[in-house]
Description:
This protein is an alpha+beta fold.
Amino acid sequence: MEIxxxxxxxxxxxxxxxxxxxxLFFAVKLxxxxxxxxxxxxxxxxxxxxxxxxxxxxxxxxxxIYFTISKDAKIGKDAQDAVAVIEKKAxxxxxxxxxxxxxxxxxxxxxxxxxxxxxxxxxxxxAVTGSDGESSTMPYYCGNGKQIIVGYTASESITVKVxxxxxxxxxxxGLGTTGVSDLSGPNxxxxxxxxxxxxxxxxxxxxxxxxAKVLAKDLGVRLGRISNFSEGGGYGGPIMYAEKxxxxxxxxxxxxAELPKGENTISSDVTITYExx
Length: 277
């Protein structure tokens, strides 16, 4: 049975209209998605930005102690040998206190000359002074002074990590008797902060999110996707034991067996930008 031509033409027209409408639908859908991604994080998007703060506290579990060994001598090798003698005394003492080799680190070893400016005697110049015609020597600079080496200074810095922090005071007292110089510390820290930093960050994010929810409700808008995120923050101030008090204790009174450790604060500050709808 042959289909009349006018039916075929009408079917073709209906199909063409359907395809046109379908193409327009997908074009509008694609354009909307494209604009959504394009506006993500751009200055054209409607956004709100909130900051959040989070912090956690923990008792420190590591104490760091710092000292320098410095010696002078006429010959460089003698200065280095003198440093080595003091260093051995300090290391032997640290071993008696249970400090592991991996927790002792030397740095900034140096040997440098000591100079002194000396002026050689200048030739005498006779000058006539006074009405009696008597002569005398006139002092003057004849330019024959120079820098000469008078000795050498050898030095080395050492950092000690004390894991049994209750021994920090006694260790500093003992080091003060070995001949080291510039003894300072302890600096109380936390050996592994990653978990604490993550906890502080989560608190900061929750803080910013709650602020954003309240603001969005007040503005009568809804929160969309996060378009920007940044984090700051840091480590709470370490507890330092006064260097002067430590050095005075080596000659006047003993250092305390235990030093107050307190708590360290680890904080995180985040800034979050939300798209709003």
